[in-house]
What does this fold into?
Amino acid sequence: MASASGLTSRAGRLWTRFDGPGRLAGVDLARGLAVLGMLAAHLLDTDRVLTLEPDTWVTLVNGRSSILFAVLAGVSISLVTGGSRPLAPERRPRAAARLALRGALLWVIGLLLVLTGVPVYVILPAYALLFVLALPFLGMRARGLFLTAGVLALVMPWIQPVLDAAPIWAGAGGEELAAIVGWHYPFTVWIAFLLAGMGVGRLDLRALPEQAMLVMAGLSLLLAGYGFAVATAPLVARQPYLAAVLTAEDHSSGLWEVIGSGGFALFVIGSCLLLCRTPVRWVAVPLRAVGSMPLTGYVLQLVVWAIVALALLGDTSDLLGIREAGLFVPLTAGLIVGCTVWALTVGRGPLETVIDAIVRAVVGRDAAPRPDAPDSTPVTGSGGVGGPR
It folds into this structure.
């Protein structure tokens, strides 16, 4: 009896941790969708022109999944540093130290993933730098964060082609340097996504008006970005610099991609928050479980990929071979089932637990965390997404 009672009590605690007032189910759902988008971008043939035909819709995961996770990383940073009320100045140094150490750990994990030779652009090194760049903004409220993100989103795409053409990337060690700093996700532009996400995290994300506002704002930016991309394409076709700036091409860091895909991320987050006000909240438990441990999901899929590719093909860098092997379906199913079982029987994801333990040992526990702060490491985990090289 005592044993059964103890198991019931533990199960109740785990469920409360997963679905209680301390978590935003919609944020977990959005992260789960981004993880699956990452898997599809890596392991499926997504090089298609988007049309009204459903079999072309898979191309939506390209670029947008990684941007969604960058925005979600900003949301998580805000949630663990005060939510809608930024931490008081005296508490920010410890919070900044915790985030900086998390960034350093993500950078190390990212470099280890690069060494596997799996043919994706690993996003974790870029996330590590973004975490550091976010530190001066921890005390800023939503309006200031959105304004700063907006200015950077409008200005930096004009500078990025010049930075991309710098001799350092083409010289000796340029490829290695690009991998170390995650230049495929250039922090010079992607800081706008992170700050926009921090602005979202400073809102009251449990309030219906804020959730609806995110959907409407995101949809407006989405339509504007991709609409202007179509309208300006004929005008810039013969002008290389303008073509590099005024584009919505995936992973281009062009102006229209930043606006359109940034809007897509806001739209998805707002929609997930709204959906989790309905019974979809319960149907989506498996996806939410994946989203509750994005770092584990991101790292695990690349490690499994490397092991399977080495065993079947003898080469971890054979992208075509691993796609033809049909890894997407079993890996996706395994990730969903594994994360669901883990979340409901163990709790926090294994890598999230390890990183949190290291941070607590080195920096210490936050004296008074907010009740709405998520349990998961603020990644996104990449869980972020990288496209094939």
